[in-house]
Structure formats: structure tokens, C-alpha cells
Amino acid sequence: MTALSISNLTVSVDTKTILKGLSLTVPNGEVHAIMGPNGAGKSTLGYALAGRPNYAVTGGTATFNGEDLLDKDVHERAAAGLYLSFQYPLEIPGVPALTFLRTALNAQKKLRGEDEVSAPDFLRRVREVAKSLKIDMDMLKRPLNVGFSGGEKKRMEVLQMAMLEPKFLILDETDSGLDIDALKVVSDGVNALRSPERGMLVITHYQRLLDHIKPDQVHVLVAGRIVKSGGPELALELEARGYDEYLGVAA
């Protein structure tokens, strides 16, 4: 089944058109990578799908597991199983990470008509996942992301994914700010979430992330459009040759 289907999507930010007729299909069970130069619209795509304010969809369609995604509010998209991992995770002073996680999880369950998770069950699961991500439980008692290193923030994002169990992941430059060791821990956490029932869209500038999170398909995004798609070898070509040859195609 197709997890995400986008057709001729046009998106404007502050009256400037960024995405200009983008089309993309990501089936369940597959990992697709979006690569492109700065300003191509990669992050805009993630924000628009997640429903971020000021990212106005002015044309086209996007369906998620057969339902109109663009017709849903932000919290409805999250409850339906869409998760956006931020390039720069936000700090939330005064809100312990554990409190944030359990509140988010139970809010989504309530919207779906499911029973809330009990405190003992939540703590049991979060300890299990945190250990695999090398997250100290003391860190989870601190305000969310406040004073965290770049690697700690990204590991916290993966912990959220594992706890919320979304149906589709959008990873916006997850490798940003990570050293080699942190990149491996984060990538292992993401790979543990690969499933026949879950699709993923990995947004990145660089091949190095795709050495750890192997994509099924790679798409080149230039000037608001996908100008070429191919297998994992396409990422290696981009790393070696850059995007110059595609700039004319997008014009």
C-alpha cells in the first residue's frame, strides 16, 4: 500500500513559491531519500506535509495511507501517524522530557480512541528504548533538549519516534551536527524502526547519512521540483559530481 502520495504540490512561504509542482510516491516499507542543494525546497516539503503554519499549499494534493493529508490539522496528521524529525530540535524549558513524551503519546492515543498508556508500562518501555540509544534516564528528567548536545537532541528525537511508533517518518537532515559515533547510534535507532508497515523520507545534503540508512530510492530536488529519481547509486553520483548538471533541468 502507498504510504505517501504527492501530486503536483505547490507551496509558498510568505508569498514566495518554493515548491513548484512536486510529485512523489513512497510505498509502505520503503525508505526514500531527498537530496538537493541549499534552497531547493527540501525542508519546505517536510514542513508543508507536517502542517507548519505559514507554509501555504497553493496547489496539488497529498494523501497519506489513502486519506487527504492536507485536509487535516497538525495534531490530526500526527495522530494519523506522520512524524517530522527536526533538523534543529526545539528546546522546551520547564517541561521534563519524560513528561513531554508521555503527554504526547497519550494525546495521540486519545485522538485515535485508544486507551492511554499507564505510567508503569510507559516507564518500562522508555527505559528499554533509552538504553539502546545510550540515553541516561537522568537526561530524561531534564527539560526537553535544554542544554543537550547536538547528538543528545537527535537521540531524543529517535526516542520519540520509537515511543510514538508513527506510520511514516520524515527525517529532516538528521545527520546535521552529529559526529561519527553519534551518527551511528542515531542511524541504528532509525534502522530499528524500519518495517513493512512504515515508510520513511530522509532529507539530506550528504551521502554519509545514506551509508548508514540505506535508501530504496533517491530523488534529486532542485528549484522546487524532483528532477531525477534512481536507486542508491544516485546518491553516490551526486556526492561525486554535485548538482550543477540538474540546475538547467529545473529551470
UniProtKB/TrEMBL annotation:
It comes from the Bacteria. InterPro entries: AAA+_ATPase (IPR003593), ABC_transporter-like_ATP-bd (IPR003439), ABC_transporter-like_CS (IPR017871), FeS-cluster_ATPase_SufC (IPR010230), P-loop_NTPase (IPR027417). Residues 4-248 form the ABC transporter domain. Keywords: ATP-binding, Nucleotide-binding. The keyword Calcium does not apply. It holds the Pfam family ABC_tran. PROSITE patterns: ABC_TRANSPORTER_1, ABC_TRANSPORTER_2. CDD domains: ABC_FeS_Assembly (cd03217). GO terms for molecular function: ATP binding; ATP hydrolysis activity. Belongs to the ABC transporter superfamily. Ycf16 family. This is FeS assembly ATPase SufC. It comes from Asticcacaulis biprosthecium C19.
